[in-house]
Amino acid sequence: MILNSSSAFKPEYDRKDELRAFDETKTGVKGLVDAGITEVPRMFVLATPETILNSDQQSGLPKPSLPTIDLEGINEDPIRRKEVIEKVKDALESWGFFQMVNHGIPVDILEGVKKAVSGFYEQDSEVKKQWYTRDLSEKRSRVVYNSNFDLYAAPVTNWRDTFFCTMAPNPPKPHELPAPCRDMLPEYSNRVMKLGCCLFELISEALGLDPNHLVDMGCTEGLQVLGHYYPSCPQPELTIGTPNHADNSFITILLQDHVGGLQVLYENQWTDVTPIPGALVVNAGDLLQLITNDKFVSAQHKVLTNKISSRVSVASFFSTGSNPGSKTFEPIKELLSGDNPAKYRATTVKEYVDYYLGKGLDGTSALSYFKI
């Protein structure tokens, strides 16, 4: 079934039926584009188009620029390391985001994993369908591919397809991964895990804690890698790639291609996260905001669609996701005082993520549910 926006003018339009029909194709948004649609189906249309949402920004003012932090020499030069820690602290307190260069992952690895993700989506639809599922409890679901994890919960459908796999603590065997990803995904994930441990040391020191504090807490125990695909869109002003949201992680390390479209909310203004060749984007997730008691912010961000080109990104979430675990997380006691009491109750990662996934990307913060 090809969905068409002409259904918007039919009084018998049933959103649930359209969602179900879309889901049953198991080909995602890319399937619609491959089928040759020229109008955005109604299920994707925002109540307030992006052109209107962005029109209230004062375009005459110079736009702030996301901090870029150079990690060169942080393990050799103590003075350099201290400078970088201060920059990380400032970025996570104000932006919740920064880009980083000289992070240690070679460009050929970055290019290779982007090519692997593109290769997954460029496979024949019948091959991709074997990975398509919404049942996260299936043991075979080491890799989950679908379009919109919150398809039936969110108020609007996003112009985005995704696959994700849990790469730590129990990574899949190579044969359990899609063929285009078997070589690059494990290699990239190992590199990201090493980089993540380095970043958590810097973040711990930025909080005035021992370098191993966040790693010892368990912030690096889980790693989920998501391959996002945003097809070119015939009417990009009517829909959104990913709506305004914060991440359900401690931190996220994002590799984006050259296309652009990622924006972060800074001082009530949407600011472009301009792609820098060879750079990676880091952002705080809700779980980091919770354990730092709001010292570091989990910034709202979104992804715009465009008419010119598809966009690929690879998001690495440091989180154990919905995996069972009894370990609880709460505001770090060393950061609390009489003037700064705990703002959040203790929770497991599973409880938090299950709530986040069940709520969907509805424009509200999942953190509010865990406030004291």
From TrEMBL:
Gene3D superfamilies in the cross-refs: B-lactam Antibiotic, Isopenicillin N Synthase, Chain
MF GO annotations: dioxygenase activity; L-ascorbic acid binding; metal ion binding; oxidoreductase activity, acting on paired donors, with incorporation or reduction of molecular oxygen
InterPro entries for this protein: DIOX_N (IPR026992), IPNS-like_FE2OG_OXY (IPR044861), IPNS-like_sf (IPR027443), Oxoglu/Fe-dep_dioxygenase_dom (IPR005123)
Chain ranges of the Fe2OG dioxygenase domain: 219-321
Keywords recorded for this protein, A-Z: Iron, Metal-binding, Oxidoreductase, Vitamin C
Pfam families found in the cross-reference section: 2OG-FeII_Oxy, DIOX_N
Record keyword Iron present: yes
Entry annotated with the keyword Oxidoreductase: yes
Sequence similarity: Belongs to the iron/ascorbate-dependent oxidoreductase family.
Name of the protein: Fe2OG dioxygenase domain-containing protein
Organism: Deinandra increscens subsp. villosa
